[in-house]
Design a protein that fits this description.
Elements lengths: L5 E6 L7 H11 L3 E6 L3 H4 L2 H8 L19 H8 L2 E7 L1 H9 L5 H8 L4 E5 L3 H5 L1 H12 L3 E2 L3 E4 L5 E5 L3 H13 L8 E6 L4 E4 L2 E3 L6 H12 L3 E6 L10 E5 L3 H12 L4 E4 L6 E3 L20 E3 L3 H6 L6 E8 L3 H11 L4 E6 L11 E2 L1 E5 L5 E2 L3 E2 H14 L3
Parallel strand pairs: 1-2, 1-3, 3-4, 4-5, 8-11, 8-13, 11-12, 13-16, 16-17
Antiparallel strand pairs: 6-7, 9-10, 14-15, 17-19, 18-21, 19-20
Helix pairs in contact: 1-3, 4-6, 5-8, 10-14
Bound molecules: cytidine-5'-triphosphate (CTP).
């Protein structure tokens, strides 16, 4: 259930900092994506390199110097948007005080304040500090503003004393993380179809006309919906095996094949997301045997016929279904996408300029403009396809669905 979840692990400076290495390792083992953020004092206990090695990502610290020209200059906003869940482990009295009082004097506290994601704090400190009334007051404030505080254990402390203040054990930390994430079941009960990949239009038994679509955007849409509890069917031309119990895969090849699979299910679904790159034309004649080259013939002409517009065909009959199209454009992005919104009877078009190298076909990022009927076009920043997917489902829910 942690697969592909974006978990930001904030490490503050206490002796228990070394224990959060185990947390990062356990999260990575469960295929979560982990971004570690360390305070200055945490780096006195464990080096960023150790966390970077375990999390397979550079650790964010207060070094605001971009490492490369593509790095973001505002890392606290970037990490804030990226995060599905923020955990502060260990949480010192200092970081707890800052979080409770709106103090943001380093990257960790600024990012924690900037993120809307749910947060869990795992305190670890000396018993006397734990019992100090202002610390207790700050913990109460955190709980009042919706931040979960996991009470520390009692036992032997690093300073040689015994009492309350030990960081809880790894299984307790992992349980808290899992149950926090599983509480986002915002799409539970929704039936969703997502299409992905480029269609393959047969020419003869061994050849087809195809395109370069990787299916990444559609797969991200399907997985994101599945993580939020939707019952998802991914109708796709690409090889993909689902590791989600609630994400079924239907393999198709041609546009006609894809249309049939959607029509079989359309009546019963709540949302259709057409992320597939569908060939507008298919060979008119499909040879029953492999087409041979002949000595007298240097050119070969293939006659094409129009494929149905799948989105338009199914959206014509929509009752309550929410229908989402994509628009791949190389010029006049917004006017062209607005035309598609109306002509195809879609509820939303996610438009992207595929002439940009960092958006569209075969890359992991996308830059979307959301086009809908009653609002101005909404330009989203360059984001990973997964972030686009998560943002889209949040938008969908905000529409009152
Ligand atoms: N689409 C579809 N059936 C087609 C072609 C496209 O359902 N035969 C869907 C795509 O899945 C996408 C949307 O329509 O959600 C827009 O696709 P796009 O390729 O941008 O536009 P086209 O309608 O093909 O128009 P054009 O190629 O002229 O831009």
């Amino acid at each position: 259930m942690l697969k592909s979840k974006h978990i930001a692990v904030y490490v503050s400076g206490g002796i228990a900092a070394y224990k959060s290495l185990e947390v990062v390792r356990a999260l990575i083992k469960q295929h979560a994506e982990v971004q570690v953020v360390m305070t200055k004092s945490a780096q006195e206990f464990v080096t960023p390199l150790t966390f970077a090695t375990l999390s397979t990502r550079p650790v964010l610290t207060d070094n605001f110097t971009p490492q490369s020209s593509s790095d973001d200059f505002i890392p606290h906003i970037k990490i804030a948007r990226w995060t599905d869940l923020a955990v502060v482990v260990p949480a010192t009295a200092d970081i707890i005080a800052k979080m409770a009082n709106g103090i943001s004097d380093d990257l960790a506290t600024t990012s924690l304040m900037a993120t809307d994601a749910p947060k869990i704090v795992f305190p670890a400190m000396n018993t006397s500090m734990w019992n100090y009334p202002p610390v207790q007051k700050n913990l109460k404030t955190l709980e009042e503003i919706g931040i979960q505080v996991v009470q520390p254990d009692s036992g032997f402390l690093a300073e040689g004393e015994s009492g309350k203040g030990r960081l809880v054990q790894l299984p307790v930390i992992m349980d808290a993380i899992e149950s926090k994430l599983s509480s986002d079941q915002s799409l539970l009960g929704k039936k969703v179809i997502v299409t992905a990949g480029g269609t393959k239009e047969p020419l003869d038994p061994v050849r087809f006309l195809g395109n370069n679509s990787s299916g990444k955007m559609g797969i991200a849409m399907a997985e994101s919906a599945a993580r939020s509890g939707a019952d998802v069917t991914l109708i796709t031309t690409v090889n993909y095996s689902s590791s989600y119990r609630n994400l079924a895969v239907v393999k198709v090849d041609s546009a006609l094949n894809m249309l049939e699979q959607i029509q079989n299910r359309f009546e019963k679904i709540d949302v259709l997301v057409m992320a597939a790159a569908i060939a507008d034309f298919r060979p008119l004649h499909v040879a029953t045997q492999k087409i041979k080259k002949t000595a007298d013939n240097d050119n070969y002409t293939i006659e094409l016929t129009k494929n149905p517009d799948i989105l338009k065909t199914v959206a014509k009959n929509k009752i309550n279904q929410f229908v989402v199209g994509f628009a791949a454009e190389t010029e006049n992005l917004i006017p062209n996408a607005e035309k598609k919104l109306k002509s195809k009877n879609a509820d939303v078009i996610l438009a992207n300029d595929v002439s940009n190298l960092d958006a569209g076909f075969n890359v992991d990022t996308n830059r979307i403009t959301l086009i809908s009927h009653n609002a101005h076009p909404d330009n989203w920043p360059l984001m990973t396809k997964q972030a686009v997917a998560d943002k889209f489902w949040k938008y969908y829910l905000k529409q009152g669905n």
